[in-house]
Amino acid sequence: MSDDGRRFAGPDFDEYEPSKSYTLGGLCPVKLGDSVGPGTPPRYRILFKLGFGSFSTVWLARDGVERRNVALKFVQAKSTARSQELNVLERLRAPNSTAGQEPYVIQLLDSFEHTSANGVHQVLITEPVVPLLAPDSCFEPKVTKDVLRQIIEGLAYIHSHGIAHGDLYPANFGFAVPGIHRLEDVDFWEQATYPQIWPVIPFSPLCDPHSYPPYLCGKLDLGEFLSDCAPDIVGHPLSVRIFDFGGAYVVDGSAPPRPVTPPFYLAPEIVFPQVALNKEDPPWDQWSDIWSLGVAFHDLVGAGGIFPKTFFDNRKLPHHMVHICGEVPDAWRDYIDSRPWPLDVAPGMTEKFWERRKAYFAQLGVEDPAGLVRLMRRMLVLDPAKRPSAQELLDDPYFSDSASLRNIVGSTHPLHCFPPAFPAKADSQTTCPNLSTLEN
Ligand SMILES: Nc1ncnc2c1ncn2[C@@H]1O[C@H](COP(=O)(O)OP(=O)(O)OP(=O)(O)O)[C@@H](O)[C@H]1O
């Protein structure tokens, strides 16, 4: 039941945005084939759905003016007024960036406001990207260094513009696909699998028919589509994009927005006040991004989550953090000792954990597992003041030979599929076998 008492018959799966979000202040009803944008005729034609998030739906569209394919993010009406995303993306615009010198950060191409029955929606137009991690694929282990270095370079660019991202987890990293523009709208219609759609039917006949779409639309897997229909486009040249600035803010002394990062990737300076002190909105900044990225690297190299996901309880996160960092801050001591799952901080516990990580990375074929472990340990430090900046991380020995790799990866396909038995999403047993004491 939505806030205004409306009910819809429609799918209730994770793959679709909830139909109850189509209400006053909520999502913009968008249909395939719609033309939107200021001007006559409207500039953008909706081709496929690319995804949805907590505040938006995102669509692949054809830009009829520039004759290119773009991603349109329709922000829900109630978030439009307070969203900082447009401001942040405008600051991150790189003037005159040429091929090979991109900032590895998604670029804003255009924006406008669109009015629907549910209110005024901000629409952000960016380049379309292929997610870095898809359910059945990741990037080739041999390009690990280059991918991770590009991500850190992108983060250094973001931070140098006074911005904290606030939502750095694997779903928000992608590859640029500049060659996608050569595909016309008919190429997509004819070659992509027709999306699964589900009719949306309001229970009440009084419901405004303009406030909801006629159907919820399944999303196009852009990586799979391009790998099948235009394999030469993906990853040539390899160029990472950090995207989703919906949780970002300009660090200028003002209060940061509420953190939107999934709990696993939240930095200790956010997690501890939330779970131990019941503070919902602890302050966070660029240093929190460094922690989140350290955690995300574990997923990005194909090793699954660094923390065990089964029976996960956020209140245990400080214990897991102590386990991988090997120290208990004074302010945490009472909390760590008073829980029903006391942590036995055994000597060598943390070293053993990282030795196992190293062996696992080697098993996955990741380049220089020891170097990667050293890099991650520099990032995963409980005290934010002791974490290196993104700029400093670029000088880490792990990347000392990655510049030479850049030219090689431009000519190889960076994405590959996991063989059926490959531990793509490691579970708690394979990921953190030595954390069992925490699960008692
Ligand atoms: N430029 C893009 N190219 C391709 N797909 C995109 C693009 N931007 C977003 N998406 C897809 O749409 C989804 C939702 O986008 P995004 O994460 O920006 O929305 P949000 O409402 O801010 O979500 P969140 O809940 O993650 O904060 C993404 O997970 C991704 O799959």
UniProtKB/TrEMBL annotation:
One of its GO terms (cellular component) is nucleus. GO terms for molecular function: ATP binding; protein serine/threonine kinase activity. It holds the Pfam family Pkinase. ATP binds at residue 73. Signal peptide: none annotated. The keyword ATP-binding applies. InterPro entries: Kinase-like_dom_sf, Prot_kinase_dom, Protein_kinase_ATP_BS. Residues 44-399 form the Protein kinase domain. Keywords: ATP-binding, Kinase, Nucleotide-binding, Transferase. GO terms for biological process: mitotic DNA damage checkpoint signaling. PANTHER family: OVARIAN-SPECIFIC SERINE/THREONINE-PROTEIN KINASE LOK-RELATED (PTHR44167), SERINE_THREONINE-PROTEIN KINASE CHK2 (PTHR44167:SF24). This is Kinase-like domain-containing protein. It comes from Mycena pura.
